[in-house]
Design a protein that fits this description.
7-stranded parallel β-sheet, Rossmann fold, alpha/beta
């Protein structure tokens, strides 16, 4: 049985380290593990692969892969793999949502604290050698307590559930929206709304966190009308994908102080262009798609892949399976 690893990215952490394949060969000697250093050999090597660890494959490669039975993406988002050749096939698609979810959730909590306590403003004042106590206090909205605030989660997947757990422990009231509000509500969430009816969530939330997958229905989920439904002292946080927000509408809302501010970890096009107007908004906190970074990343990936490999070899159902027709 052949397992193909085809992961290459300009950002080194997203590329599988050499030890990943070496350890797979040691732990699963019955496998032929092929680890490509670039994408040049994918067309050839995927033809007889039964398992592929990859986040970027082409329709023609899937079509040519007659033995392929399982594709695992080391990303949480899989919209780039949702094309007919894969969707309509018998190939099982899994993703790394449970690898990234808890790590991204920690980043969300860090962003909430940074916004609540005006940390970006304090950093700017430090760079100017200014003692800005009065300036920080006079900023609108004032520095605030996180306990007692309302957190609105748009999405209750791996990220959303982890955020809810942390936020509830901090004394925040958590409300959420998801596609199927009839599903059992986590104990850490006070109320659940339908994803198609965001108004009640937006109207009461002090912090709105986006962590939904990219689908045709979620593109520009947050647009000008929905920004207008948010509280004037509320903050928007996006750790999903850039296309969830109408960027021009958000720029207008931030410039006019329609909402208090925002924190973005993801953008329509990455890296963010040097001339993007987003850089110059003083009520916007930018992190360069770092929410999922951890020195334990590939160890976490290894544990997930090998757990599922054991299941696959034992003909047991896999974990973190993607509904290919829904896209998540």
């Amino acid at each position: 049985m052949k397992l193909l690893i085809a992961l290459r990215h300009p950002f080194a952490l997203w590329t599988a380290p050499d030890w990943f394949a070496e350890r797979l060969r040691r732990d699963f000697p019955q496998l032929e593990v092929v680890h490509l250093k670039d994408y040049a050999g994918v067309d050839k090597e995927i033809q007889d692969a039964e398992v592929a660890v990859a986040w970027s494959l082409k329709p023609e490669q899937i079509k040519a892969a007659s033995k392929l039975r399982w594709v695992h993406s080391t990303a949480a988002a899989v919209h780039q793999l949702i094309f007919p050749e894969l969707v309509e096939s018998e190939i099982v698609l899994t993703n790394a949502r449970d690898v990234h979810g808890p790590v991204v959730a920690e980043h969300v909590i860090a962003l909430i604290f940074a916004l609540a306590k005006h940390i970006p403003q304090a950093v700017r004042l430090q760079q100017l050698h200014q003692w800005g106590q009065q300036a920080v206090w006079e900023s609108q909205p004032h520095p605030r307590e996180v306990a007692g605030a309302t957190l609105g989660l748009v999405g209750l997947g791996s990220i959303g559930r982890s955020v809810a757990q942390h936020a509830s422990a901090l004394g925040m009231r958590v409300v959420a929206a998801r596609e199927h509000p009839e599903k059992p509500r986590p104990a850490t969430v006070a109320e659940v709304f339908a994803a198609s009816e965001l108004q009640p969530l937006l109207a009461q939330s002090d912090y709105v966190v986006l962590s939904v997958p990219v689908t045709p229905a979620s593109r520009h989920l947050i647009d000008a009308p929905r920004l207008a439904q948010m509280k004037s002292d509320a903050y928007l946080i996006n750790v999903g994908r850039g296309s969830l927000i109408d960027t021009n509408a958000l720029i207008d809302a931030l410039r006019s102080r329609q909402i208090a501010g925002a924190a973005l970890d993801v953008f329509d096009k990455e890296p963010l262009a040097p001339d993007s107007p987003l850089w110059d908004l003083d009520n916007l906190l930018i992190t360069p798609h770092t929410a999922g970074l951890t020195d334990k990343l590939w160890e976490r990936h290894y544990q997930q892949v090998t757990d599922n490999l054991r299941r696959y070899l034992a003909h047991q159902p896999l974990l973190s399976v993607v509904d290919k027709h829904k896209g998540y």
